[in-house]
Amino acid sequence: MISMALGLIIAGAVVQVMVSNQVTEKLNRGIASTQESGRYIINRLRSEMLMVGLYDQLSPQLNNDVDIVNENVFVRNNPIILPGKFAVRNQLGSVQGIDGASDKLVVSLQGFQDCRGYTLGYPDQEEFYVVNEYFVDDNKLKCTGFDGRYLRGLKAAEGHNAHNSVTLLDDVVSFQVTYGITDLESTQGSAIPIRFITADGIQNSINDGQSIVALRLAVVVKGDSEITVDQKASFKLLNEDSFTVSDNGLYKAFETTITLRNMKNFVRSGA
């Protein structure tokens, strides 16, 4: 009897250890997946945003079927697209989400392909004016790419200009953006951001002679593990009020500040 009792105690302890190990493994998987997702999307967005405002009309790879001098002026003055800038898709533009909803970000640059990897009818390794849109739909961070010349009404749509979006990352609860503005007078020519504003304040800043030279991006992602936590997580992203997620899953916030070096150099040049 004593041996049986000891055996049951030992067996119970072993079972408890196994259960504990399984819980720990699930937790570790959840933490790892959340970290991996967050690092991936922040690194991807950073690499793409670093090119915002790029336009080199002397590049031998640049397609010159349109007036590239005029296009250079347009891109330099519209690194961040606001609604009403294009003859086609007039509503396309960066928008501040209402009541804590995710923001929409639309950017301009010269590149070989859009954010989906499409060349939009141009030959491989030929650069063109790219417009990329980033937004959250059904808890997925997505992007859509456009030929800026098509949007300006300068050419017909070609290639993958059906403008279907692609998913960059699943399980994104929130995507927030603020914009760092500068003016040469207050920064003594350094073109560093003097403050960060939301999309609905960009036009007024431009009207006041200020320029966008940086972005702040923030996302909240959910891990793909079935692990739950005792309390629902709460977050405060950038300019937004604090919010609490809808379930007890494992969530994590990621933020980054990106200097738009092309715009910073452009502002410094006084062009």
TrEMBL record:
Q: Which InterPro entries match?
A: PilW
On the tree of life, the source organism's domain of life is Bacteria
Single GO biological process annotation from the record:
type IV pilus assembly
Mind telling me what this protein is named?
A: PilW family protein
Which species is this UniProt entry from?
A: Brumicola blandensis
Q: What is the lineage of its organism?
A: Bacteria, Pseudomonadati, Pseudomonadota, Gammaproteobacteria, Alteromonadales
